């Protein structure tokens, strides 16, 4: 039973929880919401300069935190960040001396004994956390793994050299900071192996990403044209690469095998940018590409999909968009990396190793939406409910908070 008198928790997150437009934002939103059941939360937020808190955002923060403070991230990366501050180029917008001061002040003024830092870009805050405070670091992905995988996607030699230098910066940064925490939380068993292999970290547990509810749409697949969804902003390179991979490798096979389809892109992507990518790779199918832009209601957009494609070849962790699609009963066809942490024998999730396997999976879609498969899917998804995830998480670590 949870004591009525809650422990105080200092919680900091490098991904702003509003709006829930990315897996990271969704994860941190539910972290705040669910951990507030167990702790009085003293929150440090890192907010993009362009975003303005809405009244709903403020109500959420006041409801679920005892105190919150906001640090505004900078708009641009610093080229000399690693040499001047030992912070990687990609993480430089999150580095701020005021954040270190705020961390120390909040912990000391409120006599806080427990701290949780979410996301790698602000792992440096451990420098301001006393060793008497029990510290937890939550890695939404293992950035070293993500960047080494991303190098495989780079074809230009000059770009490869620059990215390799950036990769080394991140490796040394993670090597320095991860070992300073008392407990490491990762998103999948694969990531647990990675932090042990790369950094010798053995004090990790796996706590996956999740879903708000299970709400099957119970819709049948309309085979003509097949409506394929592809989610994610191109500002995140793996999403842009997934789109290019579809254009170069999957779309030509669908056309050759006379599978009529439309591709629906969801994310904060401009139509001219999409047209430019298509024109450079496979201009003949531009009429089949539909840019839906940023969508607030994922349920409304999933209603229009027959399946979700997620050809992901970099990054790590578990992918919220894949679990979310499954929660609506939408079949997902993804890569082995995309399925990390959520593999299941249920027919609704297909792991494709080749472009032809993506195409083969589309031919089986009409036959999978049967009651027995939906029952199996519901059973599989129940542990992925956010409330279940954080209840289990607290049980895994609660003995540290006594």
Descriptive report:
The structure is a single chain. The protein contains 14 helices and 13 strands. The chain has 2 domains: 7-210 and 385-401, Rossmann fold, CATH 3.40.50; 226-384, 3-Layer(aba) Sandwich (Rossmann fold), CATH 3.40.50. The mean pLDDT is 92. It is α/β, with parallel strands linked by helices and 402 residues long. 39% of the residues lie in helices and 16% in strands. Helix 11 (320-327) links the parallel strand 11 (307-310) and strand 12 (332-334). It starts with 6 loop residues before the first strand and ends in a 5-residue tail after the last helix.
| CATH hierarchy: architecture of the largest domain | 3-Layer(aba) Sandwich
Assign the CATH class of the largest domain: Alpha Beta
- How far the N terminus sits from the C terminus, by CA atoms, comes to 13 Å
- Estimate the mean pLDDT confidence: 92
The helix content is: 25-40%
CATH superfamily of the largest domain: Glycogen Phosphorylase B
In terms of DSSP E residues, the strand content is 15-25%
Rounded Rg: 22 Å
Strand order of the largest sheet: 3-2-1-4-5-6-7
CATH topology of the largest domain: Rossmann fold
- According to DSSP, the number of beta strands is 13
Pick out its properties.
39% helix, globular, 402 residues, Rossmann fold, 13 strands, 7-stranded parallel sheet, alpha/beta, 2 domains
